[in-house]
Amino acid sequence: MSQESQTDRARAQLSNLLGQAANGDRQAFQDIYNLTAAKLFGVCLRILSDRQASEDALQDAYVKIWRNAGRFDARRASPITWLATIARNTAIDRKRSGGNRVMVSDDAITEMATEERSALEKLEAREDRNILNKCLDNLEAKQRNVIRTAFFEGHSYNELAQKLNTPLGTVKSWVRRGLKRLKDCMDDG
Asked: Residue 137 is part of which domain span?
């Protein structure tokens, strides 16, 4: 079986499980957790740099996923991207409410997160990362830099404006235009 068809099957499986969870199926939700917890923990850990805070954020993220599973739309995003966005936003919210700002390297995340990732997680992560990196590389340098800083390091627009010594409106505009180009690219990718 080709990697593309495995990825399509994995997406379909997660989409189906999210639909079942939206209807209150606890086993489907458990399956979602089993398939995605390592990846989503890595997302939280990268932002929070603290294992306990990341575990707490992950728990909060799964509560949000359970409550909002019915809002997932496979036409708008892949299921793993939708799940990772919830985890990322939850971790950023937790960080902004009083966490520290030290970032953890990708190597540390790999060591700390569960060693045994499913084939589904590996395929989805590789595909999403490749498409995202290709699309980010196509952005203008300032758009690429503010998006990376805002979304991968969890900085707010105000923090970016101060860090870059640039007006807040300009930073928001760079991010908005960059995200539009990124979305268009990823929809095509």
From this structure: 126-189
Q: How would DSSP label each residue in 124-188?
A: HHHHHHHHHHHHHHTS-HHHHHHHIIIIIS---HHHHHHHHT--HHHHHHHHHHHHHHHHHHHHH
Number of H helices, E strands in the chain: 9, 0
Model pLDDT for residues 84-122, shown as the tens digit of each residue:
999 999 999 888 886 444 444 444 444 444 444 455 555
Element (H, E) at 48: helix 26-48
- Interhelix angle 157-164/168-188, rounded to 10 degrees, is 110
Answer for the pair 159, 173: CB distance below 8 angstroms, yes or no: no
Q: Which of 80, 74, 61 is nearest to 127 (CA)?
A: 80
Q: What pTM value is reported for the model?
A: 0.55
118 part of a folded domain:
no
